[in-house]
């Protein structure tokens, strides 16, 4: 709430400083009758002592006083940022030009001549109280403004923080859904619990040594597990068939690449855009004999070339319903043999270079227990019936 100058005038506190008790008390009485809060002091020293407690808006002070005169008092108050806005009226003799000049240079705001005329005293107080009002108003306004800016900045900072948390939660949720979706697709025909995690980490390890930046590595990490999402569209009779597939069945099986790409197509999310390409091309071969398009060499997207080697290595080194896992050495030999035919030779070289890292990922995501899966359940049911 702000006061108008008129209202403020009534709340003004005035300190009257004079060593002449008659002048001091008569000025004090007049001002009290006007409704001001008044305090008195005998000299500048006492005025300073009373200042902190009384906090006057205006000081009316005599010029000559024992202990500390009016000019010194004026200088001290006007040199202190805390008290600089106090209005100071210096009482001087009539036509005492020298004292007035001294008073002005000490920072006095106004002058009263002896003998003091009551109407003049009231008029001077009124005009100084207005000045004091505007000083205080501006000071208060600036303070409020600063506080408001500080408050808004804090609000903005908090909102920004909340937004960051919400965004990271959304990202975490999206990535978890991607992982679970990939798991759902693999669950139908793979019984290797951590297959998608291993593939994902193998891909990141290869990508790191290929010099991919962090953003690309993150995309690869979350897109590669979706490579076989298209298996969701392959009939159980083919996907879960225990024996070898016929030529026709194999052609249908190959469609999981196209189905996967269709499931993921049209997304604006960079993870899913990359996953679409990986799903479509992870069975392409470096020499052009893969499917579905028979792409050759670097025409096959890099992420698909990386995922291909990670996926094959993991498939070879884990138990399958129809065969036991190969040893790491045998699996590596197969990959070596396929260098330049199935796999990108540069990626094979990197794979061998980071062999230890690959093996520690394999160890970290070891499948401790077998997860019951549809293939096994189906076999069990058919045995019982
Ligand atoms: Fe596949
Ligand atoms: Fe796979």
From TrEMBL:
Coiled-coil residue windows: 142-176
Q: Which domain of life is it from?
A: Bacteria
The molecular function GO annotations come to:
cyclic-nucleotide phosphodiesterase activity
A Pfam family hit: Response_reg
Residue positions, PTM 4-aspartylphosphate: 62
SMART domains, alphabetized: HDc (SM00471), REC (SM00448)
Q: Which PROSITE patterns does the record associate with it? A: HD_GYP (PS51832), RESPONSE_REGULATORY (PS50110)
Q: Which PANTHER family match?
A: CYCLIC DI-GMP PHOSPHODIESTERASE TM_0186, CYCLIC DI-GMP PHOSPHODIESTERASE TM_0186-RELATED
Q: What is this protein called?
A: Two-component system response regulator
